Amino acid sequence: MEFTSFGAARTVTGSKHLLRTESGKTVLLDCGLFQGRDPRNPTLNTHFGFDPRSIDFLILSHAHIDHSGLIPKLVKDGFTGPIFASQATIDLCGIMLPDSGHIQEADVAFSNKFRKRDGRALKKPLYTVKDAYACLKQFKAVSFYDWHELEEDLAFQIIPNGHLLGSGAVVVSWKDQASGAERRLAYTGDIGRPEPNMLKAPMPLPEVDYLICESTYGDRLHDNQDFGLSDLVQLIRETCVERQGKLIIPAFSIGRTQEIVFALDYLHNFEMLPPIQVYVDSPLSTKGTEIYRKHLEAFNAQFQRYLAQDATPFAFPQLHFIESADESKALNDSPDPCIIISASGMMEAGRIRHHMFNHIENPNNTLLIVGYSEPSSLGGQLTHGARTIRLFRQDLQVKARVEVIQSYSGHADYREILHYLHPLNQGRLKAVFLVHGDYESQLALASRMHRQGYPNIEIPDRGQTRTLA
Ligand SMILES: [Zn+2]
User: Fold this and answer.
1) Over the range 26-64, which residues count as b (16 or more CB within 10 Å of their CB) and which as e?
2) Which of 6, 281, 419, 469 could form a disulfide with 49 if both were Cys (CB 3.0 to 4.6 A apart)?
3) Cα of 20 to ligand 1 centre, how many Å?
4) 227, pLDDT greater than 70
């Protein structure tokens, strides 16, 4: 078996890990979009580094766009095989991939306006909404934990990992031809927190010979998880009551938005939420919340107890889901204090950019960052204290208060990663490959794992092939 990373190698986005068996079959683990403002991204998103027609199977760990967002292009460019994922992941991809197609089309239309004016060649979208709908036909639902045979001596299972609704680690099993022995590889996908706000905790991995492990927070520890809720109440009071400003929360439409809405629902039930209006301004978030309502089996015992008391955990009288662009624009003109939750989380697309554009220069407003943003993205720049930002071809002064609450992160920190990996049998493990992290985070995690006795920890670069004997 051979293993090569074609994305999320020494970086966070673009997850694509290719396995090639001795008989020549190819299994692609994830097919994500490179996100952020890295100038290499357009090229990396155009050229996979392999021929999509040569791929036999795709197994998807979860629906986030940095793991799934190039599937429509993979199919458009000739991949005809099955795409295996959990039912919840398929449901989420059913709304997220067409939305991504819409963003691709809208971004190209925006930049083509200027290209046309300047007499430059027009760009084409990576893929369209239609391409996104077309790829959905190749998805096949698999149950968690069950082994699924791809061909003789090649099988896989998905184990829930608490990162996102439907998310899981992928374990691949094959027979080594020289020794005849079974070999196993686990790909962690994105590892959730040990006590996720709503989802069930990550389940332990079985014994494996090889591990492909994410390392997003390989050099960091999160705040105490309770910090989020009390901090949220304080911020709402300071911004919306004392300063009569707006609290703007950029959030991934899927996952983070539902967590925030649930937190506000909780605060409302316990009469801790001031009487201000809350708007979820993202059509995708509205659809995503419907999918969350459909998969309540995926939630942890604490959330199930909450459900017994409140059957509508994503609804309270002050909460409004905004659909039309006109309603969204009206929010910008309204002087009333309010909370606006809008996508995308990294602020590189979606309606959040209009809210940023209209509110970032007012010191009475607060921007609350509650998730990971790729460092070069607008969200990443603001997380790291940028005082000016560039948006819609204009430079804006960051006068609004900017706060970052890390406890909402969907990614395990290094202590939590090591805790998650602890049940692995180190005696059987032959090598560990760190992916999905900035190089500094990966080096930090590698040295921690080395101290804990993990063998052969490698940080593969894009396109480097390793043989898994
Ligand atoms: Zn993810």
Assistant:
1) bbbbbbbbbbbebeebeebbeebebebeebbbbbbbbbb
2) 6
3) 24
4) no
Fold (topology level) of 2-220+410-467: Metallo-beta-lactamase; Chain A (3.60.15)
How far, in Å, CA of 421 to CA of 27, rounded? 24
Q: Residue 153, SS3? A: coil
- 401: tokens are 């208060």
Query: Does residue 201 contact residue 422 with C-beta atoms inside 8 Å?
Result: no
Q: What does the pLDDT average to over 354-375?
A: 92
Q: Give the residue extent of every domain in the chain.
A: 2-220+410-467, 227-408
Average per-residue pLDDT for the chain: 94
Beta bridge partners of 464: none
* Cα 403 to ligand 1 centroid, rounded to whole Å: 22
List, in sequence order, every residue forming a beta bridge with 83; answer none if it has no partner.
58, 139
> Which residue in the block uniquely carries the two structure tokens 């430079």?
395
Pick the CATH number of 227-408 from 3.40.50.10890, 3.30.1330.50, 2.60.40.10, 3.30.450.20: 3.40.50.10890
Would you state the pLDDT for residue 137? 98
Which tens digits make up the pLDDT trace of 400-416?
A: 999 988 767 789 999 99
Alpha carbon of 10 to ligand 1 centroid (Å): 16
CA within 13 Å, CB half, 49: 22
- CB neighbour list of residue 23: distance below 8 Å, 6 or more residues apart: none
Query: Ligand 1 center to residue 190 CA distance, Å?
Result: 5
* Cα 334 to middle of ligand 1, angstroms: 34
14 pLDDT more than 90: yes
The pTM is what? 0.90
Taking the C-alpha atoms of residue 17 and residue 30, their distance in angstroms, rounded to an integer, is 7
pLDDT tens string 418-465? 999 999 999 999 999 999 999 999 999 999 999 999 999 999 999 999
* CA 399 from centroid of its chain's CA atoms: 29
Q: pLDDT (tens digit, 9 = 90+) per residue, 27-39?
A: 999 999 999 888 9
